[in-house]
Design the sequence.
């Protein structure tokens, strides 16, 4: 199953990609390694955020589907 990236997930992923670009241009290996670790963390956050956001969306959709529209005032 492919998960579509949420807006929040995309923002985390853009940050991760920026960190990786900077890490590649670093001459200090220690700093580059730290930036790569941080980028990995942001990629993980992107995946988590997208999963959480997708679950919330499904929950909202299910709640709307269960709503008793016959009780709506005319």
Sequence:
């Amino acid at each position: 199953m492919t998960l579509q990236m949420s807006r929040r997930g995309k923002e985390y992923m853009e940050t991760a990609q920026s960190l990786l670009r900077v890490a590649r241009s670093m001459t200090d290996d220690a700093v580059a390694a730290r930036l790569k670790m941080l980028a990995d963390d942001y990629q993980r956050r992107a995946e988590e955020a997208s999963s959480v956001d997708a679950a919330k969306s499904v929950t909202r959709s299910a709640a709307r589907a269960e709503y008793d529209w016959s009780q709506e005032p005319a």
Remarks:
- Residues 8-55 form one domain.
- The first helix runs from residue 7 to 25.
